[in-house]
Amino acid sequence: MAAEIKAPALRPLPLAPPLLPGAMAGSRPYVASDKMQQALGFPGELAPDWQPKALAKMGELLGRYRSLRVFLDACVHCGACADKCHYFLGTQDPLNMPVARQDLMRSVYRRHFTLPGKLFPRLVGARELTREVLDQWYTYYNQCSECRRCSVFCPYGIDTAEVTMAAKEIMDSVGLGQKYSNEIIAKVHRIGNNLGLPGPALADTLQGLEEDVKEETGADVRFPLDEAGPRCCW
Amino acid sequence: MSLASLLFALLYYVAAAVLVGGLAYRIVGYARTPAPLKIPTTPAPTTGGGVVLRLAREVLLFESLFKGSLWLWGLAWLFHAGLALVLLRHLRYFTEPVGSWLVFLSPFGVYAGFAMAAGLAGLWLRRLWLPPVRYISTPSDHLLLGLLLAIAGSGLALKFGVHTDVVAVKSFFRGLLTLAWKPLPADPLLWLHLFLVAALMIVFPYSKLLHAPGVFFSPSRNQADDPRDRRHLAAWAARLDS
Predict the structure, then answer these.
(1) pLDDT, tens digit, for every residue of A40-64?
(2) Which of A70, A76, A115, A159 to mutate to test the interface with B (most CBs of B within 10 A)?
(3) What is the pTM (predicted TM-score) of this model?
């Protein structure tokens, strides 16, 4: 007799969740090793001149992506996005509000790329790109899954994913890559698959699968590897 | 011509130049920057006409904000619609003769001044009251709200409290347009109102007020969702392809 399962009552969510500053400050992915970084053509680690390089990269991206340029200029800090991010709702860390996450880069943009930020940094919330700020970038841009839900509700369609992608590109370019993705991409380049399975191991796995299928169904099914022509691929 | 009239004439030439020049610089910058990714937020229109409709709804009705937060939408719309009517009413200081449509609209502009002030006050209270919004507010956010509220307040005071010689004000601004300068009434409240407006014009292209041109250039709002019918390729991305 299975136990009776009762669904818990729905919990009403507060209009504005209470803030827990720093709640997720310690949650960051492993940094990619110098080998993984270099395999992708990035510097292995932060060099002493990382700051001007990061700013140069940011300037380059501002010239390449209209989205980044418009989104960094247009935000009015209205907060319509704040309670739309599930990472903010789930953690209550204010830096997980989409607007605050964008402001990690917007503050640097204002300081280094706009006149008011150069003249009156305190007034417009502009900050130097220091090591502390870069570490905040690494922590909080890696807590964004680029789902774009915030952009649905933004009156200007500001898409945090565009800002997050730019931040990750800048961090990669100065040697602060994220292990999980960079390791996988390096494996795809070097070995040909995301798991890093060498060719012989893959051939052996497929042979084992052929034997299992034969045993289970009695049918002869071939699992081809590196062959031109098969109509199925997995 | 008094010294004050001269200074205000100069101030308004500078403010107009900064506003127009600064906005043109920004807009040309936005237009020249490529948009390599097709990123219209769904549900997105699939045709150019649909994009025009979508942008019209965003600009006139604040559709996305309506979905996001009803309170915020109400206050923001009250302020912006009020501001639009007030600006239209102020056209009568620049046009001669005053068109019949402007004569029709003008009384609405008076009440719109109150709507504008009420919306601004509500937006400011919200910014002070709600912890998440207070957290993300910078001093400039508060200052801009204060500036706009002071402009609305001084304007309403001129209309309902201490009247000024509006005919002379009109001849001053007509004079600026036609380069035949006329004196400005020596009225401190009028000076305050005009000074604040000039300040707003000057900070416009350097502040978050850029959301006004920005919304037209937002790739998540101004793109048609047709990447399967038409390949979307920026020049610099095409070079990576070859």
Answers:
(1) 999 999 999 999 999 999 999 999 9
(2) A70
(3) 0.89
